[in-house]
Amino acid sequence: IFRYSANTKALEALKSRINFTWDTTLKPDLDPHIVGNLLKLYLKELPESLIPTCMTGDFLRFAYCYSTKKLFLTFQKLCQNLPLAYYNSLKYVTHLLADVAQQHSVNKMNSKSLGMAFGSCIFR
């Protein structure tokens, strides 16, 4: 879903429609690669990544230091220090990515693939 490039004209058309009309209704036959690419484009065009640059070091410092449970609790505490808009956006994106990863046998997007596709959108 997130690895393949979408048709550029279709991607720009959807982006323009949403930007100018706020109509986020998606047709059932819409190419899912367009939607996936639009999400990545939106995240890349944000003025700041979902984890603000000033907090990136805090997150990365703990990435290799603890057990999985301790790491999760530490990340949870760090996320609580995010500005509310960042926190909410990160929460929705990570829930979406978790749902996609759970279906990896169908969509071929495991957590590693998703990390590669979205890492630069979440951290800069």
From TrEMBL:
SMART domains referenced in this protein's UniProt entry, alphabetically: RhoGAP
Annotated Rho-GAP domain residues: 1-124
A Pfam cross-reference name: RhoGAP
Entry's Gene Ontology BP terms: regulation of small GTPase mediated signal transduction; signal transduction
InterPro entries, per the entry: Rho_GTPase_activation_prot (IPR008936), RhoGAP (IPR051025), RhoGAP_dom (IPR000198)
Organism name: Helobdella robusta (Californian leech)
Name of protein: Rho-GAP domain-containing protein
Molecular function as annotated in GO: GTPase activator activity
PANTHER family linked: F-BAR DOMAIN-CONTAINING PROTEIN, SPERMATHECAL PHYSIOLOGY VARIANT
Keyword Lipid metabolism: no
UniProt key word Secreted: no
Keyword terms of this UniProt record: GTPase activation
Lineage top rank: taxon: Eukaryota
